Amino acid sequence: MTQQRVDGILNYRGTMTVRDSAVGSNAKVVRTAPSPRAGAAERVQVGVITILPLETQAVRLALGLRSERVGDLTFYRAAVDGVSVAATSALEPGQRSAMAAYNNLVGVFDPEIAVLVGIGGGVHESVAIGDVVLATEMVYYDLRKVTPSGTPRRGETRPAPAAVGHAVNAFLTDLDQPSRLAIEDPEGTSRSVAVHAGPIGSGEAVIADEDAAEIAFLASFNDKILAVDMEAGGLGQACHERSAASGRQHRWMVVRGISDHADRNKSDAPQRVAAWHAAQVLRRLLPYLKNDR
């Protein structure tokens, strides 16, 4: 039997795949850089999530953001006082849509911190309509057990990372007046707005009854809860789980302009002013939120 010498690779009755390799005399490998991920963009320092169109309008105007399409999604971007910002709006109100908006934001811009900005209902006697609440802790009130004898609630609390709490404390310390900020609206009206920091309640209900079981539960769970919303629980959970998957901490916080007292007098009329106050407080807060490392 005559044997032949083969320069290269001999395969007999099989399959094989060769990648990034050269075969034979004087062979060369020419590699091209992989194409960038569709929709990929540089990482930003602060990501903003809004829910209602009037909240998005207020944030765009207050921060001077420009729109940018990525696939079928619209984002809003700018550098604001040296801080890179990207914003997006959820498809609809609620925890699930807030989580989806966060995932969209992270998938394109991967912000160092995500901030939920918009309106909320005040449930503490110290909070007035037009005030702004900075929340670094969330109490999710919708966990419950349905039994023949009743439906006891099981609140779940989630604090934001400690760095966020330090940033909020530094911001409040630097205010010209204790816990107050002068804000001018687009029509030129100036107001002195109270700024509060503390926990908020979050669940799936639009609450328009001061005697609602949800309000009573939150007061018994933590008498310092300042406001309620329908999205903070989703954002806090999304950041918590993303931290485990990515191996780094994903920071979050909530800025809520108070548009009602979650009672039977609830009205849409104050929403635009409350959204503007929240957006303006966010603008002042931005330098405290960026990570300088």
From TrEMBL:
Membrane-spanning parts: none
Gene Ontology MF annotations: adenosylhomocysteine nucleosidase activity; methylthioadenosine nucleosidase activity
GO cellular component: cytosol
Ranges of residues in domain Nucleoside phosphorylase: 48-285
EC number: 3.2.2.9
Protein's UniProt keywords contain Magnesium: no
Signal peptide (residue range): none
One biological process term in Gene Ontology: nucleoside metabolic process
Keywords tagged on the record: Glycosidase, Hydrolase
Top-level division of the source organism's lineage: Bacteria
The protein's name: Adenosylhomocysteine nucleosidase
